[in-house]
Specification:
Elements (H helix, E strand, L loop, with lengths): L26 H14 L12 H8 L3 H14 L2 E4 L3 E4 L23 E2 L12 H12 L13 H15 L8 E5 L2 H11 L6 E6 L3 H9 L3 E8 L2 E2 L10 E4 L13 H14 L2 E5 L15 H4 L4 E6 L11 E5 L1 H14 L5 H12 L2 H26 L12 E5 L3 H13 L2 E2 L1 E2 L13 E5 L5 H17 L1
Parallel strand pairs: 3-13, 5-6, 5-8, 8-9, 9-10
Antiparallel strand pairs: 1-2, 4-11, 6-7, 10-11, 12-15, 14-15
Helix pairs in contact: 1-3, 2-3, 4-11, 5-11, 6-7, 6-10, 12-14, 13-14
């Protein structure tokens, strides 16, 4: 039997009545006015069943007669009607007045564009059956009472196996693995736990600006360091820094692979100066030309924090990643989580565990390595057809076509917009207006194949026009 404090469709507690018992306006009038406001504001909709007069009177602490008078008034105005044995229902409710200036993110009315911006995964490579099976397996667990601040034990074990198999990181380095909510979130945690406001971090320029934003949000200063065709210029690292953030496996966005000699130089510099190296391996699994070079975390686990994410190899739906750090850094991150009550969601961790347990994660990575090369070949062929080249290693999920100036870059992007293609210029990946690189980064992973075939020739023509 239903309690009189609730009714189908509308909960009493959802109706925010505020009565002025000392005012001159009758309580019945106040109740009627607020029910009208609930209808016109969208809280109530046509067909919603209203609380009973007895139930609403009990909640508001008034007599049932007061509520009955309010309902009678609304009935006379045509707002509500009663059904014998069923209840009282709202019969009409104007469309809610839009709040001027309020915009829902992603709800704009811009025309559809083929989005060739980098940084999105190839979700077409995900096996739908395996994906559904993993989510069902994750849901079979009982709800948690408390979550593990370091991450679910099964998730951490699955990631260690993944790193050993696909990235060559052994389990004997002494480093501690923690689950994260993704690379940017991990950078934010490191900025607070391992650094202090006013500390200085050197970062590739152009580079990953969300990481820069995470540092700056914690009060950490970011100094740009130039990159060339071989990645980070280690010889240009400034003095007085406390950490270096880099993407050595596949420099973002230019796509270079940091050579072994620079990796050694970076590690020696870090040890000599007592600084931390943050290695963001955002798409390190997506190499399909040659074997990857040893990770910095393998070469120097004492001074390197290794970051990984599922956002580029699977989907941002999971919202998870990992951090492999020296014990003191890991302990500082855990202490931060304990103080703030934060930590990654267990749901995405459980999905990854299920994918790994069934072998679906390894199969997915093999599919990715088969599917991405033809996509890259399509982009490169179209660009070369127009006399354009690309920079970056044969890896990852995007290429960069260089241009001669910032003005040309802007014109190419504007032309692409007019022709239905969203292009990503290098301008937004720089820290300052003084730039050495101009061009467009073309992502080839996210679009369905048919859309990619349609979009890439347009992008190539836009680039060739200027």
């Amino acid at each position: 039997m239903k309690s009189e404090s609730t009714c189908e469709g509308v909960e009493l507690d959802d109706l925010p009545f505020v009565l002025d018992r000392d005012g001159s306006t009758l309580l019945s009038v106040q109740i009627a006015d607020q029910l009208r406001q609930a209808a016109t504001g969208g809280l109530l909709r046509t067909g919603d069943r209203l609380p009973s007069t007895r139930g609403l009177a009990r909640r508001l602490g008034v007599s049932r007669t007061v509520v009955a008078v309010a309902y009678d008034q609304l009935h006379a105005e045509g707002w509500i009607e009663g059904h014998q044995g069923s209840g009282t229902y709202l019969t009409t409710a104007p469309a809610a007045t839009p709040v001027h200036g309020a915009v829902l993110p992603g709800a704009d009315s811009a025309p559809h564009l083929f989005d060739l911006a980098p940084g999105a995964p190839c979700t077409q490579a995900i096996d739908p059956a395996a994906w559904r099976r993993a989510w069902r397996a994750a849901a079979d667990h009982s709800p948690l009472v408390r979550k593990h601040r370091a991450g679910e034990p099964e998730f951490r074990q699955a990631v260690l196996h993944h790193l050993l198999r696909h990235r060559g990181i052994g389990t004997d380095t002494g480093a501690v693995l923690l689950a994260t909510a993704g690379a940017s979130s991990a950078v934010g945690e490191l900025a607070v736990a391992a650094l202090r406001p006013g500390d200085v971090v050197a970062m590739e320029d152009p580079g990953y600006q969300r990481a820069a934003g995470a540092f700056e949000a914690a009060g950490v200063e970011v100094l740009p360091v130039p990159v060339d065709e071989n990645g980070l210029r280690v010889d240009c690292l400034p003095t007085g820094i406390h950490a270096v953030y880099c993407t050595p496996a596949h420099q973002f966005p230019l796509g270079a692979r940091l050579p072994a000699v620079r990796r050694v130089a970076l590690i020696e510099h870090a040890r000599r100066c007592g600084i931390l190296v943050i290695e963001d391996d955002y798409d390190g699994e997506l190499r399909y030309d040659t074997a990857p070079l040893p990770l910095l975390a393998t070469m120097a686990p004492d001074v390197v924090v290794h970051l990984g994410t599922t956002s580029k190899i699977l989907s941002p739906s999971l919202g998870i990643g990992w951090l492999l750090a020296p014990p003191d850094i890991a302990e500082a991150v855990l202490a931060l989580r304990e103080r703030t009550g934060t930590g990654p969601s267990p749901a995405g961790q459980r999905v990854l565990v299920a994918l790994a347990d069934h072998g679906d994660l390894a199969r997915h990575l093999r599919r990715l390595r088969r599917r991405l090369p033809p996509r890259r070949a399509l982009v490169v062929a179209q660009l070369r057809r127009h006399g354009l080249g690309v920079v970056g290693d044969d890896a990852g999920s995007h290429v960069v076509a260089l241009l001669d100036s910032a003005e040309t870059e802007q014109r190419v992007i504007a032309n692409g917009q007019k022709r239905g293609v969203a292009l990503d210029g290098l301008a937004r990946h720089h820290r300052h207006d003084v730039r050495d690189h101009f061009g467009v980064a073309l992502g080839y992973a996210a679009l369905p194949w048919s859309d990619l075939v349609a979009a890439v020739p347009i992008a190539a023509e836009c680039l060739a026009d200027f």
